[in-house]
Amino acid sequence: MSIARGFRKRSPMHAKTWGINILRQLVARQELTMNINTIIATARAATPRLAALGNWPAWLGGEESLTSRIPQGGDTNAPGFDAGLAAALGLIPEDKQRLAAILHGAYTPEAVEKVRCEGVKMDPDSESCWWLAACSLCQEGGIDEAAFLRQVEDFKVLAADPVARQAAARRELAAMASKFTITNGIPFVSRDGGLQGAYLAGFDWGVEWKEAFGIYFVGTYQSSLGLEEFPFSSQLDAEGRPMSGPVWGSQQYVKANGRKELAAIIKIVRAHLG
User: How is the chain split into domains, by residue range?
Assistant: First the structure.
């Protein structure tokens, strides 16, 4: 059988419909790219204001700490939407953005205590409710452009509905509390949100395993883990990223490459923070 006979000839009407569908796909793709580009530009423009509002530390990556979460081109594994982006895109009212701005930059005892207190009543217009509602949509990985835009639209629904926003915030607060276990007095986290849950439960620090990266993270909401002089390994992953050391230069959140290094880090942090 010839190659030509292997294909069914399209009728003029079928060909027209096929062409229209392809055109629609191209237009949809173009609109998707335009939306992503607009979002990136908006996040960049908001960075100076949010940095000042949240008193971002010098080591934080500025606009990159926001824009690196947004998938671009063929990226299918971006961190995606979070409360920092919700504030940057104006989806959280400006007078309710301070907590989200602070927690995007660095966790502080004051901010953690604010969430603890406001989480009891969970006023839908409280800063903590807005922050938790945005956190409820955060996935920290596996996000492509279409999924990111769905996250944005889903948060718009919560922003417009105080009852739904409050319910989402309460669910997220409860979920955070369930995402860590205690081993030898240390909170161990294997799901995103568990470290925040440990902080809110009264633990000063915790250990987090991230399967996507194959490494451990150790975090605190106090000013430092006490690891300023620690000899982190210099090993890089397949993409040339450090597998060990401070994240974005932070002394509150560090990577640990393997159990041996983690054990050495835990010994120092336990002595420093208890």
Answer: 12-175, 178-274
Instruction: Say if CB 136 and CB 169 are below 8 A apart.
Output: yes
The torsion of the CA quartet 111, 89, 192, 108, rounded to 10 degrees, works out to -20
How far is residue 133's CA from residue 78's CA, in Å, rounded to a whole number?
A: 20
> CB-based burial of residue 185 (10 Å sphere; 0-12 exposed, 13-18 middle, 19+ buried)?
exposed
Pick from 29, 30, 33: which is nearest to 41 by CA?
33
Query: One digit per residue, pLDDT tens: the chain, 274 residues?
Result: 444 444 445 555 554 454 445 444 444 444 555 699 999 999 999 999 999 999 999 888 789 999 999 998 888 888 999 999 999 999 999 999 999 999 999 999 999 999 999 999 999 999 999 999 999 999 888 899 999 999 999 999 999 999 999 999 999 999 999 999 999 999 999 888 999 999 999 999 999 998 877 899 999 999 999 999 999 999 998 878 899 999 888 999 999 999 999 999 999 999 999 9
Angle between helices 127-135 and 145-160 (to 10 degrees): 150
Q: What is the spatial distance between Cα 237 and Cα 102, in angstroms, rounded to a whole number?
A: 30
